[in-house]
Amino acid sequence: MQTPDDTILSVEGLRVGFGRGAATVTALRDVSFTLGRGKTLALVGESGSGKSVTSLALMGLLPPSGRILSGRLNFRRSDGTVVDLAGLDAAGYRAMRGPGISMIFQEPMSSLNPLFTVGDQIGEMLLLHENVSSAQRDKRVIEMLELVEIPGAAARAKSYPHELSGGMRQRVMIAMGLICNPALLIADEPTTALDVTIQAQILDLMRRLQKELDMSILFITHDMGVVAEMADQVAVMYAGAVVEQAGVLDLFDHTRHPYTQGLLASIPRDDLVDGERLVPIPGSVPSLTALPSGCAFAPRCSHAQPECHRPVSLEEKASGHLSACIFDFAGAA
Amino acid sequence: MRSYLLRRLIGMIVVIFLVLTIAFVLVRLAPGDPASLMLGPDASPEEVAALRVRLGLDQPIIAQFGSFLANALRGDLGQSLFFNQPVTTVLASRAEPTIVLALFSLLVALVIATPIGIWAAYRRGSVLDQTSITTAMLAASVPSFLTGLVFQRYLATDLGWFPASGYGGAGAGFTERMRHLILPAITLGITNSALILRFTRASMLDILGEDYVRTARAKGMTERRVVLRHALKNAGIPIITVVGLTFALLVSGAVVTERVFNLPGMGNLVVNAVLRRDYPVIQGTLIVVAALYVLVNLITDLLYLAVDKRVKY
Questions:
Q1: Are A145 and A137 in contact (CB under 8 A)?
Q2: Is the dihedral of CA A192, A198, A204, A207 positive or negative?
Q3: Per-residue pLDDT reduced to its tens digit, A84-131
Q4: ∠ at Cα A15 (A10, A16), nearest 5°?
Q5: Phi then psi for A175, rounded to 5 degrees?
Q6: Would you list which residues of chain B are within 8 Å, Cβ to Cβ, of chain A?
Q7: What is the CATH T-level fold of the domain B93-307, as seen in this structure?
């Protein structure tokens, strides 16, 4: 399939399984989304919906028991050529990580190696991917630390992770992720473990760096507030599949999939009138080993009809707005 | 750091003092009079009385303890009854085979255990993991005297690659002496590799599941670099502990191995001293081994400090 020039990443029908043979559990059943160049796509969903597995699959970092069963992960490199990440070998993936795709993780406290200085760990990226002298490396590391607004960058480069706060460590992770100028940054709940004030600072920083460095961001989160603040596009995941993708305003204003509607209705808001109650989605996420046939959300859906047991796939319901529901509930929340 | 070293030093002095006290009390706890005990049932009362005076046993117990401590501090651990030489001289002449053997066998154990431990952890659950663990356990659970005897029979006697026993005899050169330590070192190394292997594997398994190992992979480095640089350094801390303890254990005398290979080391010395009721030598060995333990422990703790900057003393 052709990928439009302004698309940096297009995931088509990604299926990921864990385990072998008959015991294989399909964690991702059908993940499809596209991310435009210089844009931010938020991948949202409940715990266990497959957001993190999707990001690990993109990075080629699935645990040994997991593997990509099918699907295409078309990624446009900075030289304009398109490569299917699913077809890369180990060496190809290594070269891709860093300069092509970088990732920052949820836990800044444990994601840095405790035994190396932060300068060492950031500089290692250059050591791995760029042929620069060690003096050049040190200089770039300090510049990068300044870019992520770490005060006293030169001194901080010699610090060990335990000497920094959680927010500072996440800045270090961002510096490490960005030093090789990646085309795509995957951020897996980068602010979930941080205080609210720090969270806002980190989000600000990421937005600023995105503009300065012209990169695309795949932002994984379960926080709709963060989605509204960060995303251009949103893909909603449920039980290992993307059920709706749209522009962020379109998604909030014209929600089409009943699951997304339920998700939005269950968020605490400050415009709730006294006495008005949040509406939780009834039931719970189905087990991946016992998914219903057809739409996986049907058992919890108030609009469910007998037809919902037929297979369903992501379809464009309006321009740029895709939904995996056989009905179209545009705007009906 | 300086205050930590000072605290450790004081702690070491306390431990050594306690060991000296125990060594002192131990000989006097043995039923009967130490002098007649040392000389055995055939000694005449005159001989016993003479030894009592020589050992200072006619003095009040506090005075005895005082002079024992004072002597020990001056490095005088008494006179061996059997060799008729100062205990320190006897111990010094036996130290080389024991300490070199401890170092050699530790090296052998590390060479066997760390690569297999790392590889087994990396390929956990694989056939290689299970085979290597089982083989290592098998090798370690065979008593060292049997391994030693088998090596002597095949590698020394039949093939003639190594000397079968002894330490080269009087006046043997350094190379010749070391040649005699090869088989004992392999024997002891195999036995001690199992514990280190288990520790290495368990420790690596823990570390390989850490978030920062995933970060390392996400940076696009080879698996070799992930494992040997980012994981192994972290896994090293528990490994240092077990290596330190193993070394201390080895230094305190690989009695059986020294026996099998007839090495004139401290293990052999202490067994003979027990059989000969050479109490000053037993006492002296106890003190020297305790001091070595304390020293090895200190070195281990200082190594932590060098590896892990989070450790603050």
A1: no
A2: negative
A3: 998 888 899 888 998 899 999 888 889 999 999 999 999 999 999 998
A4: 115
A5: -60, -40
A6: 210-212, 214-223, 230, 233-234, 307-310
A7: MetI-like fold (1.10.3720)
Q: Are A37 and A82 in contact (CB under 8 A)?
A: no
Q: Rounded distance, CA A32 to CA A237, Å? A: 10
Cα dihedral across residues B203, B204, B205, B206: positive or negative:
positive
Q: What is the DSSP letter of A274?
A: T
Q: Give the tens place of pLDDT for each residue, A174-198.
A: 999 999 989 999 999 888 888 888 8
Cα dihedral sign, A96-A98-A99-A103: positive
Contact A142, A179 (CB under 8 A): no
Dist. CA B247–CA B108, nearest whole Å: 12
d(CA A56, CA B164): 58
Q: What is the pLDDT of residues A299-330, one digit of tens each?
A: 888 888 888 888 888 888 888 899 988 887 76
Domain boundaries, chain B: 2-73, 93-307
Q: So what's the pLDDT on residue A1?
A: 43
pLDDT digits (tens, 9 = 90+) for A195-237: 888 888 889 999 999 998 889 999 999 888 889 889 999 999 9
DSSP letter (8 states) at residue A306: G
A328, burial (CB in 10 Å: exposed 0-12, middle 13-18, buried 19+):
middle
Whether residue B210 and residue A107 make contact (CB cut-off 8 A), yes or no, is no
Q: Is the pTM of this model over 0.95?
A: no
The list of chain B residues with pLDDT below 70 reads: 30-32, 34, 253, 313
ipTM of the complex as predicted:
0.85
CA–CA separation, A165 and A150 (whole Å):
11
Nearest to A115 among B211, B220, B233 (CB): B233
Amino acid letter at A279? V
Distance between B307 CA and the closest CA of chain A, angstroms: 7
**CB within 8 Å of chain B, chain A residues 163-202:** 173, 176
Residues A81, A86, A87, A91: what is their CA dihedral angle, to the nearest 10 degrees?
A: 90
C-alpha–C-alpha distance, residues A312 and B176, integer Å: 82
From A95, A99, A111, residue closest to B215, measured CB to CB: A111
Cα–Cα distance between B173 and B87 in angstroms, integer? 25
Q: Do residues A151 and A24 make contact, with C-beta atoms less than 8 angstroms apart?
A: no
- How distant, in Å, are the alpha carbons of B108, B195, B198, B205 from that of B137? 16, 9, 9, 18
